[in-house]
Amino acid sequence: MTISPAIVSWFRENGRDLPWRQPGFPAWGTLVSEFMLQQTPVVRVIPKLEAWLERWPTPESLAASPASEAVRAWDRLGYPRRALNLHACAVAITEKHGGVVPSDVDELLALPGIGDYTARAIAVFAYGKRVPVVDTNVRRVLARAVEGLAEPGSPHAKRDLPLMESQLPDDLADAHDTNAGTMELGALVCTARSPRCAECPLEAQCAWVLRGRPAHDGPPRRTQKKYEGSDRQVRGLLLGALRASEIPVPASELDEVWGDDVQRSRALASLVRDGLVVGTPSAGYGLPD
User: Fold this and answer.
1) CA 210 – CA 227 distance, rounded (Å)
2) Are 109 and 99 in contact (CB under 8 A)?
3) Which residues contact 37 (CB under 8 A, 6 or more apart)?
4) 3-state SS of the chain?
5) I need a surface site. Which of 13, 87, 91, 121 has the fewest CB within 10 A?
6) CB neighbour burial string for 278-287, b if at least 16 within 10 angstroms, e if fewer
7) From the centroid of its chain, how far is CA 277?
8) Exposed, middle or buried: residue 162 (CB in 10 Å: 0-12, 13-18, 19+)?
9) CA 81 → CA 78, 113, 201, distances in Å?
10) Whole-angstrom Cα Rg for the chain
């Protein structure tokens, strides 16, 4: 028995109405959405995605713009290195694939900023390919429903992908909805801290429930690092100051962004190292061309 039939039935009744799930949504839009959804909540992605695709509806249109405009438009989505990767990805698609987002997983993996999850997500959600897609939510559903564990172990593609593939039916539409539905179930019902088992379509067959929902006995979950006062916050403040200016910002003005000289210098150096900022103390700093 697989989890697919129950997942597919539940998803078709309960799946959220999201832009990238609409019929005819372009593969480029799916790729952009996957970049934005990396570590950013859906509710924050939707308006930014719509604005982005209105401005840059194709890879060619983004590739024709300076990378600085991509970083500027990324605004406060977080982890702005993704904006540079997305711009580089648009350039590669334009130059190597004639402006068409490839459908093959290996070709997608060769693009800048695309890892195993993103490549498979594009292949499935943009092109309907029958390949397993595994993220944190999927791993948690599989751990509980299939393996009878409260929490999944550490990510391991050689284990996780075959396990998910074993749950995929041959029918392409059903395989697509199994991938999307498992992800959705993990996000909305089979959550990390408060799973709503009574509302879950897998309750009757869930190995974890049938075992009496034993507690997790593995390594403790990682605690999320505090944002306030972190280097990441300082990086964001510095980038915000640079986004607001069309000309290089003097180092003296950046000094006012954050009072701790050592931390500010460290954050600025990391932005320069990541290619998100260019400049020198004498010439000032700005976004990359």
Assistant:
1) 39
2) no
3) 45
4) CCCHHHHHHHHHHHCCCCHHHCCCCCHHHHHHHHHHHCCCCHHHHHHHHHHHHHHCCCHHHHHCCCHHHHHHHHCCCCCCHHHHHHHHHHHHHHHHCCCCCCCCHHHHHCCCCCCHHHHHHHHHHCCCCCCCCCCHHHHHHHHHHCCCCCCCCCCCHHHHHHHHHCCCCCCHHHHHHHHHHHHHHHHHCCCCCCCCHHHCCCCCCCHHHHCCCCCCCCCCCCCCCCCCCCHHHHHHHHHHHHHCCCCCECHHHHHCCCCCHHHHHHHHHHHHHCCCCEEECCCEEECCC
5) 13
6) bbeeeebbbb
7) 23
8) exposed
9) 9, 9, 38
10) 21
Q: Is there a contact between 23 and 128 (Cβ–Cβ < 8 Å)?
A: no
106 φ, ψ to 5°?
-65, -40
d(CA 38, CA 23): 23
- Under a CB-based contact definition with an 8 Å cutoff, are residues 78 and 39 in contact? yes
Give the predicted TM-score (pTM) of the model.
0.86
Name the stretches of the chain with pLDDT < 50: none
- Using alpha carbons, list the distances in angstroms from residue 80 to 45, 86, 279: 13, 10, 18
Residue 76: per-residue pLDDT: 86
Residues paired with residue 249 on neighbouring β-strands, in sequence order: 285
pLDDT of 222 reads 67
Residue 214 pLDDT: 94
How close are the terminal C-alpha atoms of the chain, in Å? Answer: 54
Look up residue 67 and give its two tokens.
């990378």
- Give me the pLDDT at residue 257, please: 86
Tell me if residue 34 is catalytic: yes
Q: Could you tell me which residues come within 8 angstroms of residue 120 by beta carbon, excluding any fewer than 6 positions away? A: 105, 131, 132, 133, 134
Structure tokens at 215: 């507690």
Contact 49, 19 (CB under 8 A): yes
